[in-house]
């Protein structure tokens, strides 16, 4: 089998698995959540645009932070496996073409998110800078160029380049991104786009003609580790919706939460409660999920002045958190201790339902407080709604959902 055929086969298997999991994730519940989220988010965003006037700085600063985030994230899909550091080493010269092709493909895929963010945020530039419709092209070119320069910083460690040179390149790229975004938002948009595009085209030519990076040997260990981390991030996201094999769990001690965990566990007669609570807190897949969802929901509620929209957002985020926490049932089934300890399925599920209820109650409280800035005192009316939904979800919907899933 040729190297080209090997990576085509890997690409085919990779896409097949992704499509299989995508069909599971894109169920009726998830689609409904997306529709509500986009609807409520769009309504809130349109109301916010009505308050934006020419010359305002704060909206542009917020957009600048979003641009910096979108152009500074992303990864390279190489589809490498641990054995490649041995078997592909003699094929290093031939692998260069594969590497360039995968780099171009990853960059092209990343432009979809860049284009979406540019399209959504462009009305703010129109409102604050008086930008015309044709200026959207300049915005897109600038963000696409900065995305490419950031991708080069991801690629650099994959070659045997001195670490100090890589660090200098990262600092230079970060400074260039910062200056370009400031110029984009506050100075001259077309000129910024032209400068960034010129730098981008020059570095692209240097990269694809192998005038940079390729004079050095590949760092196979680094590339394989980066690919494994990327796959684990993807599998952990999919694992929030369904059971996924070969997933690695990140566990952190979080000792500062021990007093709270001890207080919650005190007096509990169900031994499963003690363990499930600690899995939820110390497993970053769950704890960070709850934190991120609460922060995003809180930010949306702070700028929402409609009680009905706020109520829909509260229910949406509570449902989203609770639904994804139902995978705790599958998580504890993989733990050997629960196969040894004499606990019934009913004991485990009872602990899960109780913990989900307690957590959703806390999130309801926090979301209600966040809504005070947009709704005033009527935001307190969101608490009874959130508490009622938390109870119905935890003790009516969740048991039926787990029963249906197990069947």
Description:
By secondary structure, the protein is an all-alpha fold. Helices cover 76% and strands 0% of the residues. The chain is built from 18 helices and no strands. The protein has helices at 3-25, 28-49, 58-71, 84-87, 92-129, 135-155, 163-186, 189-208, 220-239, 258-265, 271-282, 284-302, 307-325, 328-333, 336-340, 345-370, 372-375, 382-406. The longest helix has 38 residues, at 92-129. The radius of gyration is 25 Å and the shape is flat. The two termini are 43 Å apart.
Classification by helices and strands: mainly alpha
Shape: flat
**Approximate strand percentage:** under 5%
User: Mean pLDDT across all residues, rounded?
Assistant: 81
Number of strand elements: 0
Give the biggest sheet. none
**What percent of the residues sit in helical stretches (DSSP H or I)?**
over 70%
Total count of helical runs of at least 4 residues: 18
Poorly predicted runs of 5 or more residues = none
What gyration radius follows from the Cα positions, in whole Å? 25 Å
Output the helix-strand order.
Answer: HHHHHHHHHHHHHHHHHH
> Terminal Cα separation, in Å?
43 Å
Oligomer: single chain
Helices and strands, with pairings:
Blueprint: H1 3-25, H2 28-49, H3 58-71, H4 84-87, H5 92-129, H6 135-155, H7 163-186, H8 189-208, H9 220-239, H10 258-265, H11 271-282, H12 284-302, H13 307-325, H14 328-333, H15 336-340, H16 345-370, H17 372-375, H18 382-406
Helix pairs in contact: 2-13, 3-5, 3-7, 5-6, 6-7, 6-8, 7-8, 11-12, 11-16, 12-13, 12-16, 13-16, 13-18, 16-18
């Amino acid at each position: 089998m040729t190297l080209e055929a090997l990576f085509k086969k890997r690409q085919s298997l990779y896409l097949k698995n992704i499509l299989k999991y995508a069909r599971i994730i894109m169920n009726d519940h998830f689609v409904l959540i997306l529709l509500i989220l986009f609807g409520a988010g769009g309504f809130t965003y349109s109301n916010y645009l009505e308050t934006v006037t020419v010359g305002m700085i704060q909206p542009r600063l917020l957009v600048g932070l979003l641009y910096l985030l979108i152009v500074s994230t992303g990864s390279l899909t190489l589809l490498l496996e641990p054995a490649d550091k041995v078997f592909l080493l003699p094929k290093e010269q031939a692998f260069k073409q594969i590497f360039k092709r995968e780099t171009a493909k990853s960059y092209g895929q990343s432009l979809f998110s860049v284009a979406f963010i540019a399209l959504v945020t462009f009305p703010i530039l129109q409102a604050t800078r008086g930008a015309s419709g044709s200026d959207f092209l300049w915005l897109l070119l600038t963000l696409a160029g900065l995305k490419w320069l950031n991708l080069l910083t991801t690629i650099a460690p994959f070659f045997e380049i001195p670490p100090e040179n890589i660090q200098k390149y990262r600092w230079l790229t970060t400074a260039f991104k910062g200056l370009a975004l400031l110029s984009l938002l506050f100075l001259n948009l077309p000129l910024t786009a032209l400068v960034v595009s010129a730098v981008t085209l020059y570095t692209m030519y240097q990269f694809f003609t192998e005038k940079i990076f390729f004079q050095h040997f590949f760092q196979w260990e680094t590339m394989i580790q980066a690919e494994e981390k990327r796959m684990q991030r993807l599998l952990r996201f999919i694992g929030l919706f369904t059971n996924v094999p070969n997933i690695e769990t990140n566990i952190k001690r979080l000792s500062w939460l021990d007093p709270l965990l001890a207080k919650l566990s005190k007096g509990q007669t169900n031994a499963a409660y003690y363990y499930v609570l600690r899995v939820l807190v110390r497993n970053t897949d769950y704890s960070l999920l709850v934190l991120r969802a609460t922060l995003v929901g809180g930010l949306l509620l702070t700028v929402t002045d409609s009680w009905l929209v706020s109520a829909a957002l509260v229910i949406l985020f509570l449902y989203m958190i609770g639904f994804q926490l139902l995978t705790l049932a599958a998580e504890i089934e993989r733990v050997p201790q629960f196969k040894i300890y004499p606990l019934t399925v009913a004991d485990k599920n009872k602990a899960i339902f109780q913990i989900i209820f307690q957590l959703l109650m806390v999130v309801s409280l926090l979301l209600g407080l966040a809504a005070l800035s947009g709704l005033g005192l009527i935001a307190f009316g969101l608490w009874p709604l959130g508490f009622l939904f938390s109870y119905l979800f935890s003790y009516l919907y969740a048991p039926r959902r787990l029963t249906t899933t197990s069947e």
